[in-house]
């Protein structure tokens, strides 16, 4: 994950308090690497914490993580969230991998139950240190910058979970109607709705792009799309030309984030891949790697062969900074 906006870290307690804001959620059973270069946080990487009997399974992901960190950073701070018998061996494996990749390991901390321990042999930090997030200025600065962590990763997944109950029933009706409308438009233009077919008629693409532009305008006003508008937008995003227009217009803004969360949750399964991928791109551009990965998983569950999601997945796995990915794919750059 790329670190969002700017938070100043000067002490170990600052680091411990800040990690949930960088991740987007409070980590549990996790090994987190805060990656730095030229004294700036470049991104945050997280690995699942293995059970002691499974520590050998960490070797490969640790080596991959170390290679990624070495590509974009020169130093790392490690924080393990969990009991000592799980954190300490996992931290040793990752520390060894990082040093082999010529990455300096500046700190190794274990965090649990409102306390942290130094695992790097510092005699001044041999005992547990109680920390109080409420006493730190970091939460206030984060709130001012619009950063707020969720309870855990499951809460982040719930943020984009499909709607249920009566709303789900309404969206099924609206979604089926939208798909029939799109199929009729394509059939009337002589181009059936199917992969590998010739480009759709210009008037159909124009209608789709208009729907995207109207959706962005609606989001900019802080309004919510109707059931029919969500269904039609999700349907026209099946057209690559419309989808490409939508994602090249993504800017990482909070308005775009709310829009694509809403559409991802309300779209029927047949049309979920595109809005979920657009949400992943929006989160990626905003530096919210946690949401980007979860949205990407949602897109690929809807369509494992979705090419744009696969492309973004490769960028996330390689740790490509958003501005480089955006410049390579659209010619635009983030601030």
UniProtKB/TrEMBL annotation:
It comes from the Bacteria. InterPro entries: DUF4192. Pfam families: DUF4192. This is DUF4192 domain-containing protein. It comes from Micromonospora sp. HUAS YX12. The lineage of its organism: Bacteria, Bacillati, Actinomycetota, Actinomycetes, Micromonosporales.
């Amino acid at each position: 994950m790329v670190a969002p906006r700017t938070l100043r870290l000067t002490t170990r307690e600052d680091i411990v308090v800040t990690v949930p804001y960088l991740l987007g959620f409070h980590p549990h059973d996790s090994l987190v690497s805060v990656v730095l270069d030229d004294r700036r946080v470049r991104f945050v990487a997280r690995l699942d914490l293995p059970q002691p009997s499974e520590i050998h399974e960490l070797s490969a992901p640790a080596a991959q993580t170390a290679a990624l960190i070495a590509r974009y950073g020169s130093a790392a701070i490690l924080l393990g969230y969990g009991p000592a018998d799980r954190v300490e061996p996992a931290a040793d494996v990752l520390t060894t991998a990082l040093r082999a990749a010529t990455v300096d390991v500046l700190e190794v901390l274990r965090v649990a139950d409102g306390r942290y321990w130094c695992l790097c042999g510092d005699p001044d930090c041999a005992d547990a240190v109680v920390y109080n997030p409420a006493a730190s200025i970091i939460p206030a600065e984060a709130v001012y910058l619009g950063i707020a962590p969720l309870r855990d990763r499951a809460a982040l997944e719930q943020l984009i979970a499909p709607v249920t109950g009566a709303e789900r029933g309404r969206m099924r009706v609206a979604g089926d109607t939208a798909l029939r409308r799109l199929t009729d438009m394509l059939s009337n233009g002589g181009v059936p709705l199917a992969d590998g077919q010739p480009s759709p008629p210009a008037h159909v693409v124009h209608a789709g792009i208009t729907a995207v532009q109207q959706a962005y305008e609606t989001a900019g006003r802080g309004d919510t799309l109707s059931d029919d508008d969500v269904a039609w937008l999700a349907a026209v995003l099946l057209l690559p030309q419309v989808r490409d227009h939508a994602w090249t217009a993504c800017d990482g803004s909070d308005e775009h984030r709310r829009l694509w969360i809403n559409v991802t949750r309300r779209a029927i399964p047949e049309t979920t891949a595109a809005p979920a991928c657009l949400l992943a791109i929006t989160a990626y551009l905003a530096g919210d790697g946690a949401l980007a990965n979860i949205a990407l998983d949602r897109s690929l569950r809807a369509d494992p062969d979705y090419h744009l999601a696969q492309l973004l997945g490769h960028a996330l796995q390689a740790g490509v900074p958003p501005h480089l990915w955006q410049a390579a794919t659209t010619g635009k750059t983030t601030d």
